[in-house]
Design brief:
The structure holds 2 protein chains of 2 kinds.
Chain A (H helix, E strand, L loop, with lengths): L2 H37 L4 H6 L5 H10 L6 H13 L13 H36 L4 H15 L2 H15 L24 H8 L2 H38 L2 H8 L4 H39 L4 H9 L4 H29 L2 H4 L1
Chain B lengths: L1 H9 L6 H17 L2 H23 L32 H37 L1 H15 L3 H12 L3 H12 L1 H15 L2 H8 L4 H37 L11 H7 L9 H28 L6
Helix pairs in contact in B: 3-4, 3-12, 4-5, 4-7, 4-8, 4-10, 4-12, 5-8, 6-7, 7-10, 8-10, 10-11, 10-12, 11-12
Chain lengths: ~350, ~300
Amino acid sequence: MDNKTAWAIATARQAATFLASLALTFVGLTAVTFFIGRLTKIDPVLAVVGDKASKEVYDQTFLALGLDRPLIVQYALYLKRVLSGEFGISVLTSQPVLSDLLRVFPATFELATIAIIIGMAVGVPAGVWAGARKGRWPDHIIRIVGLFGYSVPVFWLGLVGLFFFYGKLGWVSGTGRLDVFYDDVVTARTGVILIDAAIEGEWDIFRNAFSHLILPATILGYFSLAYIARMTRSFMIDQLAQEYVTAARVKGRSFWGAVWRHAFPNIMVPLITVVGLSYASLLEGAVLTETVFAWPGLGLYITRALFNSDMNAVLGGTILVGTIFVGINLFSDFLYRIFDPRLTAG
Amino acid sequence: MTQSLVQWLQDEAPRSRKQAALGNLFRAMRAVVTNPAALTGLIIVTLLILVAILASLLARGISPLSQDLVNRLAAPSAEHWFGTDELGRDIYARTLFGAKVTLTIVMLVSVVVAPIGLAVGTLAGYLGGWVDAMLMRITDIFLAFPRLVLALAFAAALGPGIENAVIAISLTTWPPYARIARAETITIAKSEFIQAVVLQGASTWRILFKHIVPLCLSSVIVRLTLDMAGIILTAAGLGFLGLGAQPPTPEWGAMVSAGRNVILDQWWVATIPGIAIFIVSLGFNLLGDGLRDVFDPKAER
């Protein structure tokens, strides 16, 4: 059997594992949200018919919702509804939860994507530098920066950032995605304002959106930076201890040449997983950041729904965030496995 | 006297179980104390506990709940060291009493999470087979969940409050403990002393509780210390969103949230409780890193 066939078989096997664990975790996730939905003191029938409904209407709806059936059947019905995208109607917006989620998602996507770009662009070189200079001052500085990131509450850093960079220095714009008078000027083609504004050539709006985005994205990116730098550092230390690095140095490669040309390519595969994991956790961190910055994304949508007892919206949002989170986690694990050359060597 | 005590503690051949245990504790303490980062962490955590116990004494008799609407949003001064909040309550006193709330949450979560993790992990690791496969599948599923969002949904369903915040955080925190306990159990179960007690006729439960669980404890405690900062930050996040401790309880996250609207003019209202959260998480992170270096020198450096 040649290498290509071996690789194809191994990849197919990994893909099957990936899909199976994705499906299993999704079933678990929906089981938990179903359970949470049962826990609430909100009567699911009253949520549909309202409290003025007659006893007859109430009983009819009770049966129509399948609430007399065994729990496992109810869960199966629930899973079927979720899979076909029926998350119910949001009490708050009177819209189907799915269309609400699709409307707010691009804002979170924009924030998290810019944040992960910042996290990678700073975190990877910083981690390489710290690993190559292990035990010396660059290493200590980066360790302190990382420790700070693991200890500081994101919502507090957001507030302090607003106080300094918006309130005192005026370098950035305040809360929200755009200044009020720019609202609804560009058509929401993708929902990502930077892209929409660029398509229409509205560079004023682009600049405005950017000055609103940069502070929350930097703060969010800082948290992934701390994690990415820490992991990059430890991968780098492992690689630099290998004999091939010494061999390259003996042959006359400069130190940084050996770091970037020999060691770095070898840490790229595990780095994919690290970046994937931190991208997934950014979607989570976005919940608090969005609340602080009044950023109209998924996080703000879920928290607003929380305070209006809008359980359909809360659970729909939880399933969406959860599915993306689980999906990215498992997918980066899958990528790691198929790119690991040891998998196909044997 | 002290000399002989140190010698007794460091004895290479301890003559009793108590001597061995105390000796190990002594060596671990010495390693923590000689590591500056871990020592800083230990001092911060000790201070947190002291502040929580002595809150009313340190607050100079000021109640964290007494309102003074005339002096609302006052700047830090000799009378109000950290200023006052939107109801004229003393922020210094509230920050001190907040240590109590934080410590309560952290302790409750540990008390819930460690036994669940230990039970699932040791059972899976010792029994193996389909029990192992099933328990670990469930653990993996919970491990893949987004922690804060799920805690949010739980807190929303159960209603806001400290107890529910603790339940919500615990439900999303236990999986790594089960994994650690399982890995340890698998190694321990292979050792000869376990085979010896099996031959002596010890029951499965006795082996689990008397022999395996005690040996898993140190890894679980190290992991708990490392997780504390994350638990504190999640609890503060829930408090910030209004799903944790309810007013007028002085909880740091809720205090930051109360200062949100006045951040541009009265910065101290939101800033000071945030600094408290930061210092305490930093303390647990430093101590956790130190403990990991002491108990598990092979782990990532």
